[in-house]
Amino acid sequence: MAGQLILRRADFFASTAQAVAVADRYPQNVFAEHTHDFCELVLVWRGNGLHVLNDRPYRITRGDLFYIRAEDKHAYASVNDLVLQNVIYCPDRLRLNVDWGANIPGFLDARANPHWRLGSNGMALVRPVIAQLEQESQKDDPHAFELSELLFAQLVLTLNRYRFATDGPAASGQEALLDKLITALAGSLNRSFVLEKFCEQEQCSERALRQQFRTQTGMTVNHYLRQLRICHAQYLLQHTEMMVSEVAMQCGFEDSNYFSVVFNREIGMTPVQWRHRSRKAA
């Protein structure tokens, strides 16, 4: 990994005894591909951007949650008012008798899905925990280190409990409608999505939901869905042998020519050109 940018724990932790700290990104700017010699949890509060994790692109916005291992490589691109927090930790420094492996995806099994979504209720609960953790992690004393680890345990358990589900604790209220909508869009990569039908089913105002979506994410519903589909197309082009027409169908485009036009407009090259470049780079 010659020339790879590596973030070092000595630059982010107050002491070699400190296990957990918080790194704010208000906002998160474009950041080149990098790894760390520590792990991190990434929680997105607002805005949108492109998060490329281990060569897989994710279009991210409010409620997206990532568990990043030290050896993972990732980068941020195409950001728009992207506000997130990184809770960073060193597994070898954790001392509490907590089943970390059961509550942190990838802690023990590298095959675990690193991408979750957190519902509105969960976001409201973890915000003050992260704020207190941030305060304690700025102090250089043993009591602060111990309290930080206790808060970190509370955080990861809360994240695990409130991982978003449409029938979960966040399934009511205006903000929960946004959670449901984002989840529904993510599940509509290869089929049509009609916002009017969604709003009829949820008995909510389409106009109000569109406005709320744009306020929180900085994107229209259609733009966000198109970006999700393009990200999925990039993944399929790089990691499968599907023909471009098959990729188009898998990403909700019935016309492969139209798919190529949209892909070229968003990425700056045709699907074939992008496949060739990404594989050559890999």
Automatic annotation (TrEMBL):
Gene Ontology MF terms in the entry: DNA-binding transcription factor activity; sequence-specific DNA binding
Any one biological process term the GO annotation gives: positive regulation of DNA-templated transcription
Main location: cytoplasm
Residue ranges constituting the HTH araC/xylS-type domain according to the UniProt record: 179-277
Pfam family, any one: HTH_18
Site (Interaction with sigma-70): 246
Keyword annotations: Activator, Cytoplasm, DNA-binding, Repeat, Rhamnose metabolism, Transcription, Transcription regulation
InterPro entries: AraC-bd (IPR003313), Homeodomain-like_sf (IPR009057), HTH_AraC (IPR018060), HTH_AraC-typ_CS (IPR018062), RhaR_RhaS-like_N (IPR047220), RmlC-like_jellyroll (IPR014710), RmlC_Cupin_sf (IPR011051), Tscrpt_act_RhaR (IPR023699)
PROSITE patterns, alphabetized: HTH_ARAC_FAMILY_1, HTH_ARAC_FAMILY_2
Entry keyword Hydrolase: no
A single cellular component GO annotation: cytoplasm
Subcellular location: Cytoplasm
Keyword Cytoplasm among UniProt keywords: yes
Gene3D superfamilies registered for this protein in UniProt: Homeodomain-like (1.10.10.60), Jelly Rolls (2.60.120.10)
SUPFAM superfamilies: Homeodomain-like, RmlC-like cupins
Functional summary from the UniProt entry: Activates expression of the rhaSR operon in response to L-rhamnose.
Subunit organization: Binds DNA as a dimer.
Protein name, UniProt field: HTH-type transcriptional activator RhaR
